[in-house]
Specification:
Length: 112
């Protein structure tokens, strides 16, 4: 019998961040703008991940007829998406827990 992912807490993302939609991409794939907010943290065996909601980052916005608008910064105007961070082992999670400038984790038994 395989275990399923269970919610074990939450993470607050403290400022707008841009993440790759697919963490396995080479950096040239689709990016997502994630706004500050609270997101669920999941656990399966010894792995953790959190699932974020955001909007596709349309820095190169298609206008039609082969035309594109080029934005000088991030432009979270695309479709809304939900996506997970890469699976984290306990050491990687602990490193993120210590990164109090970007995240605030609330996981009973791991954080105070």
């Amino acid at each position: 019998m395989s275990a399923s992912w269970e919610i074990v807490g939450s993470v607050e993302i403290l400022r707008m961040r841009v993440y790759p939609l697919d963490h396995r991409s080479d950096g040239c794939g689709t990016n997502v703008c994630v706004q500050p907010g609270s997101y669920p943290v999941y656990r399966k065996h010894d792995r953790y991940c959190y699932v974020m909601d955001g909007r596709i980052n349309e820095r190169f916005e298609p206008l039609g007829d082969g035309l594109f608008a080029l934005h000088s910064g991030d432009n979270p105007s695309g479709l809304p998406v939900s996506f997970p961070c890469p699976p984290l082992d306990r050491d990687a999670l602990n490193a993120l827990i210590l990164d109090t400038g970007r995240f605030r984790f609330h996981i009973p038994g791991l954080t105070s």
